[in-house]
Amino acid sequence: MKNSTIKDVAKMANVSIATVSLVIHDHKRISPETKHKVQQAIEQLNYHPSRSARGLVSRKTGNVGFILTNDHFLRTEPFYTQIFMGTEFEARDHELYVLLATVDSNIKDNNSLPRFILDKNIDGIIVAGKVPNLLIEKLKKFDLPIVFVDYLPSDKKSSVISIDNEQGGVLATTHLIELGHTHIGFIGGDIEHPSINDRFNGYKKALVNAKIPFIQKYTETEEDYPARANGYNAARKLFSDHKNITAVFACNDAMAIGAMQYLKDSGKLIPDDVSIIGFDDVVPEGMIIPALCTVSVPKLEMGVEAMKLISEQIKNPDFKNKKILVPVELIVRQSTRKI
Length: 339
Hints:
By secondary structure, this protein is an alpha/beta fold. The chain has three domains: 6-58, lambda repressor-like DNA-binding domains (434 Repressor (Amino-terminal Domain), Orthogonal Bundle); 63-163 and 300-326, Response regulator (Rossmann fold, 3-Layer(aba) Sandwich), CATH 3.40.50; 165-297, Response regulator (Rossmann fold), CATH 3.40.50.2300. The chain is 40% helix and 17% strand. The protein is built from twelve helices and twelve strands. α9 links the parallel β6 and β7 (219-223).
């Protein structure tokens, strides 16, 4: 038996195809009587509206673009991948499709833009993580709703889903302080990234709160990206000159794992000799030994909230930009200990 079409519905309800489209889109112009008649026909014919049918009235594609840079889309560091999954789960409730694209961190011209933007095949954009300012400028020229996740553009005029990074930095450092540590190092990459910088500020704030002096030499923030290899390098630099450090707060789990590997290669025991804590909670417990103490970020929920926001903006032209701050949670595992 062939699938019913919008024409079949229009014929059974004795209305035009455009009227069926208006009912599908829940348009206010349609009277309750006509709406009921069309809905009955849809039910009797077991008709499932296609996106093209919905778009006849709304002029929408039903697609949302999800953009992140190539260096954020890695199997080994799945932070943004989990955010993407959250958007995908929520999109189903809004009858939207998510189209994923990665861009180069050194974008230069329009040829580097995702094809779905150039083809005008999306209704809105979700941008995850730090992206070049040039890309943001180019995206805004298309006059599409945009939501940023884990990154605040310099103009501060867009909807943003942010992590409470500073509080997370305070939680991580305070945990080490409460275990008796006073010589606490910090390692970070891409310190200009607002999220990383806020975590660093949380580290300093916790030290001040505990009346422990902030010592610049106890920090390594010159790495260009918070990756495992850079965590290894940062730990090597830190411990080559400051062997009295008993604990390290790494700006993310990737750098924490790199630091752990350096310490193991140097004959240090974790947490007996050095306590380590990370941030993001992207490493399942049991994947590394000892299990990494970290600050957990609700990554799937961030994706869900981003999709809710972009859906609202697509539906409502008068939407006012929102900023949502997502709370974090300290997860105590085996990589830290009391001294």
